[in-house]
Specification:
disordered C terminus, 257 residues, mainly alpha, single chain
Length: 257
């Protein structure tokens, strides 16, 4: 990216770089803001491949799949790289065209991907199979040496998780539980909710400690209010009793002459 930005005037390059940094920083935590920064960068330097790629990922993150696909295609034309092929295929899924995604999974470009890219393509293809109502085929699609390996890579947890989820869809619950556990073992960065899925399969329910504390506090407040009302009511009863006692005392009053 640095080399691409060097082709721009210095001030412009700095402005574009600042916006791209914000896209990268906000993409996960606030994709809408990241998308906004990407549009600024795109207006400033639409002929820079890194800008088109960043704009594609920002659009993808907010579900603008048609826009994302257009940006990825533009970046690919500029660089000739195939590394965006899997995410381009996933955009086709997002647009409701799983058949197109499956066709892309069989193109020669897939063979040019590195190992991580090929795993990503397999995940997309399995998702497309499920979109097409072929859950058993999705299970088969995810099987391979990467799944069988005990080695842990950045994509291992997601691959195992996807396989567990596919197994669960076809009713193989015991196997699914084992693979969710394996996904959890490999999930060093917390990229999946494998622990929650395991708990769900085991029938374990988690409660929110803060929510429970709020409920206890509310219950205490209700009890205090009830107690105060009882004390107040009792006080009124005592006054009423005193009034009755005075009335019943038969105080003598002087007769009118």
């Amino acid at each position: 990216m640095r080399q691409e930005l060097l082709s721009l005037p210095k001030t412009l390059a700095e402005d574009v770089a600042k916006n791209l940094v914000m896209v990268a920083k906000l993409l996960d935590e606030d994709p809408e803001k990241a998308y906004g920064y990407s549009r600024v960068a795109l207006r400033l330097a639409s002929r820079v491949a890194a800008v088109r790629e960043a704009a594609g990922f920002a659009a993808y993150a907010v579900g603008k799949y048609s826009e994302a696909l257009a940006e990825f295609r533009a970046a690919r034309r500029m660089t000739g790289s195939v590394e965006l092929w899997p995410v381009m295929a996933d955009c086709e899924r997002g647009l409701g065209r799983p058949e197109k995604a499956m066709a892309m999974a069989g193109e020669p470009e897939v063979q040019k991907l590195d190992r991580a890219g090929q795993v990503e393509m397999r995940l997309v293809a399995a998702g497309a199979r499920r979109d097409m109502g072929q859950p058993d085929a999705a299970v088969v699609t995810l099987q391979g040496p990467e799944l069988a390996s005990n080695a842990v890579h950045p994509w291992t947890a997601r691959l195992r998780y996807a396989y567990a989820d596919a197994l669960l869809e076809v009713g193989r619950e015991d196997e699914a539980r084992d693979w969710f556990a394996k996904a959890l073992e490999a999930d060093q960065g917390g990229s999946t909710d494998a622990s929650d899925r395991l708990a769900e399969l085991d029938g374990v329910e988690f409660t929110d400690a803060l929510e429970d504390a709020d409920e206890v506090e509310e219950a205490d407040e209700v009890e205090e209010t009830d107690a105060a009302e009882e004390v107040s009511a009792a006080g009124h009863d005592d006054v009423a009793d005193e009034v009755i006692d005075v009335d019943d005392a038969g105080v003598e009053r002087p007769e009118k002459g």
